[in-house]
């Protein structure tokens, strides 16, 4: 029994060990990898993805899945840019209203997602995937396929302003992560997410309003997707339908690689942080060591399988679906 | 919000007509099969004009469509008379949409198309030709397929040769770097023809500059975010050794500029390709040294015009010389010197083109590397 517990404890740290192992490997091939400036670069590229992945973590903890992130991020990015430009184009003026406005949009989209899933009893996989497409269509409709530029230097200081070598955006993402941690560990809602993921029947018979909680989970996810959209716009200064591209793969992969179980009930936002860093370190490292690009996608896939293999305990799984 | 309303109306119409088309298509195909082809045809009085292309998330295709619409307006029709067939990057969808269209309208179709990939061009052209309709294509066509093998029905094919212009931008870049230092190239999707040609042009230019060190090439798939990440990877790998960046498209250049801005680097020489409005704007500001404009607005209009006027019998394609059937589209180098003038002329407003002047902007017959 003791040995089992020790094993269990050890397994918890495997994603972090994978991350350190990868960093050591890339450093061995090209010592430039292990530099403060490179870490700052990885932090910038990881910030938007971290927000989206943290959002979907809550949903995955409940044992559901949210695949609407590409559409939600696209809509939020585009609406954020439109609101900011309509409100004077600067965060310093009324433009700051665009930030809560965008978070609100994200929450609404999440609520619609949750309502469709719960009220119409459509599996979250299908409901969210379809809504993602609706989101992409909607953002295309709003922009007519064009891109919106954000020139406001104060907003762009999220990227350009450095504190201790790291971009302001990275600190903002860290702060959001701490809030997510608080929600996860210290609020009733957060604890209930685990309860639903651990066993929905039990949760229901203990008197939890599972449907309402699920909708809340999607709303929280939507708000974090909106944050991700804002960071993505800050990083490139461009809002367009393509802003949402690739977030589905990166975020879901990160959550799983970080050790949060897709069946729900175990894992959390710190796992997601490690997972996001693993995926971004792989992406950055492959360019840094000069791996030919036709190898990169294949290697990324293999590394993800390896990371998941190492970080999930298959003995506890009765079956895999 | 009226633009959304207009858009929805337009799209509903398109969607509705496409659904009807598909329904008619099933009946049409049976009829066509029973009757067989070879019915004598008169020139179409009022052929339906359609554009088949990839998507609307890309400024390039938006310009193509704006050209198609400008042409349709020049005929006194409304822009909703242009039928949009969006293939979303799928050759199967491209072909089946076109077949539905043909089954509905038969020979009364003037089609402009990018067949999405090279092998798909032949079935598209054969389907159009069987129906007795008219098609002009751009970009994707295999080397063994020629308009003149299909009489009048395969009106023309236009593509762009990117090797020369890409070499020009590379030379401008190397000159700006003072003829020495390290350079990196960010390429498009490795199997795309423009990506291959733009890299080739870049390599050609390198030959004349022995002190330029070619550090690395990496595909960033025409994508802004990916280019941004690739560029930060390059900065870690080569650091200050990078003195210039050669990008195979404008969209990737935006990602590079932001990756550099994040590091506080504002004056790195960068060149790009495509001549999108935002890139031209950046050229006027000196953030990009040069880009290459391929005039998609004109291409979108003229490709539709060629098919349309062949269908109405305004000109007879088979009577035209080969250089009028397969030709290169225009490429214009935009540099910091002429960007302002260029912007006023081509970006702020689109010049009014004479859509019956088919070939004056072309750059000669397509040459094949055997």
UniProtKB/TrEMBL annotation, chain A:
Mode of membrane association: Multi-pass membrane protein
Organism in which the protein naturally occurs: Gluconacetobacter tumulisoli
One Pfam family per UniProt: BPD_transp_2
Localization per Swiss-Prot or TrEMBL: Cell membrane
Lineage, broadest ranks: Bacteria, Pseudomonadati, Pseudomonadota, Alphaproteobacteria, Acetobacterales
GO molecular function: transmembrane transporter activity
UniProt-recorded name of the protein: ABC transporter permease
PANTHER family (UniProt xref): ABC TRANSPORTER PERMEASE PROTEIN YPHD-RELATED-RELATED
Taxonomic superkingdom: Bacteria
GO CC aspect terms: plasma membrane
Keyword ATP-binding in annotation: no
UniProt entry tagged with the keyword NAD: no
InterPro entries hit by this protein: ABC_transp_permease
Keywords in alphabetical order: Cell membrane, Membrane, Transmembrane, Transmembrane helix
Transmembrane domains' residue ranges: 12-30, 42-65, 71-87, 94-116, 122-142, 163-183, 215-234, 268-287, 294-312
UniProtKB/TrEMBL annotation, chain B:
Keywords assigned by UniProt, alphabetized: Signal
Compartments, record wording: Cell envelope
Pfam families on file: Peripla_BP_4
GO cellular component: cell envelope
InterPro entries noted in UniProt: Peripla_BP_I (IPR028082), SBP_2_dom (IPR025997), TAT_signal (IPR006311)
Signal peptide feature range: 1-32
Residue stretches making up the Periplasmic binding protein domain: 49-313
A single MF term (Gene Ontology): carbohydrate binding
PANTHER family: D-ALLOSE-BINDING PERIPLASMIC PROTEIN-RELATED (PTHR46847:SF1)
Similarity comment: Belongs to the bacterial solute-binding protein 2 family.
Name of the protein this chain belongs to: Sugar ABC transporter substrate-binding protein
Organism: Gluconacetobacter tumulisoli
């Amino acid at each position: 029994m003791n040995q089992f517990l020790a094993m269990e404890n050890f397994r918890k740290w495997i994603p972090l060990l994978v991350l350190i192992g990868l960093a050591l490997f890339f450093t061995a091939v090209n010592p430039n990898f292990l530099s403060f400036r490179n870490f700052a670069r990885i932090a910038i590229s990881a910030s938007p993805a971290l927000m989206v992945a943290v959002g979907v973590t809550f949903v995955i903890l409940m044992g559901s899945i949210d695949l609407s992130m590409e559409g939600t991020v696209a809509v939020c990015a585009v609406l954020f840019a439109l609101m900011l430009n309509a409100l004077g184009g600067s965060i310093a003026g009324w433009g700051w209203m665009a930030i809560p406005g965008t978070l609100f949009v994200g929450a609404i989209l999440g609520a619609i997602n949750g309502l469709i899933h719960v009220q119409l009893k459509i599996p979250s996989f299908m409901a969210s995937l379809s809504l993602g497409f609706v989101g992409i269509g909607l953002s295309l409709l709003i922009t007519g396929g064009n891109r919106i530029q954000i020139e406001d230097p104060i907003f762009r200081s999220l990227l350009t302003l450095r504190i201790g070598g790291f971009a302001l955006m990275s600190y903002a993402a860290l702060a959001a992560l701490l809030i997510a941690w608080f929600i996860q560990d210290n609020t009733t809602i957060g604890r209930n997410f685990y309860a639903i993921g651990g066993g929905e029947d039990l949760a229901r018979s203990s008197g939890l309003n599972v449907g309402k909680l699920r909708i809340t989970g999607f709303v929280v996810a939507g708000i974090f997707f909106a944050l991700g959209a804002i960071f993505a716009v800050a990083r490139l200064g461009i809002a367009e339908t393509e802003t949402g591209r690739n977030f589905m793969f990166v975020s879901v992969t990160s959550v799983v690689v970080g050790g949060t179980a897709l069946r729900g009930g175990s894992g959390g936002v710190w796992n997601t942080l490690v997972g996001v860093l693993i995926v971004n370190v792989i992406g950055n490292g492959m360019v840094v060591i000069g791996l030919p690009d036709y190898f990169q996608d294949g290697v990324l896939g293999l590394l993800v399988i390896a990371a998941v293999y190492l970080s999930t305990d298959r003995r506890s799984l009765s079956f895999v679906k | 919000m009226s633009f959304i309303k207009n858009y929805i109306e337009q799209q509903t119409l398109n969607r509705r007509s496409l659904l009807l088309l598909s329904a008619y298509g099933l009946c049409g195909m049976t009829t066509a099969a029973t009757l067989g082809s070879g019915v004598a045809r008169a020139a179409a009085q009022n052929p339906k004009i359609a554009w088949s292309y990839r998507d609307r998330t890309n400024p390039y295709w938006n310009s193509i469509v704006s050209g198609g619409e400008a042409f349709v307006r020049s005929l006194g029709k409304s822009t909703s008379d242009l039928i949009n067939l969006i293939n979303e990057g799928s050759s199967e969808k491209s072909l089946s949409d076109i077949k539905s269209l043909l089954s509905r309208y038969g020979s009364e179709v003037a089609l402009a198309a990018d067949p999405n990939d090279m092998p798909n061009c032949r079935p598209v052209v054969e389907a159009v030709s069987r129906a007795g309709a008219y098609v002009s294509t751009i970009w994707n066509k295999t080397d063994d397929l020629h308009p003149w093998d299909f009489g009048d029905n395969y009106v023309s094919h236009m593509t762009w040769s990117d090797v020369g212009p890409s070499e020009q931008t590379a030379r401008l870049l190397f000159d700006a770097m003072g003829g020495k230092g390290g350079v990196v190239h960010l390429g498009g999707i490795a199997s795309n023809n423009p990506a291959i040609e733009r890299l080739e042009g870049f390599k050609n230019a390198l030959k004349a500059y022995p002190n330029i060190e070619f550090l690395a090439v990496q595909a960033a798939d025409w994508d802004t975010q990916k280019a941004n990440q690739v560029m930060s990877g390059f900065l870690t790998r080569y650091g200050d050794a990078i003195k210039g960046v050669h990008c195979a498209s404008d969209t990737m250049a935006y990602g590079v500029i932001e990756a550099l801005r994040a590091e506080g680097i504002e004056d790195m020489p960068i060149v790009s390709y495509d001549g999108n409005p935002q890139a031209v704007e950046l050229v006027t500001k000196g953030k990009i040294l040069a880009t290459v404009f391929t005039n998609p607005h004109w291409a979108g209009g003229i490709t539709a015009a060629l098919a349309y006027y062949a269908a109405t019998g305004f000109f007879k394609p088979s009577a035209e010389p080969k250089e009028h059937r397969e030709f290169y589209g225009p490429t214009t180098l935009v540099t910091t010197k002429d960007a302002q003038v260029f912007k006023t002329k081509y970006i702020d407003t689109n010049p009014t083109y004479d859509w019956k002047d088919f070939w004056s902007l072309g750059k000669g017959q397509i040459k094949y590397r055997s």
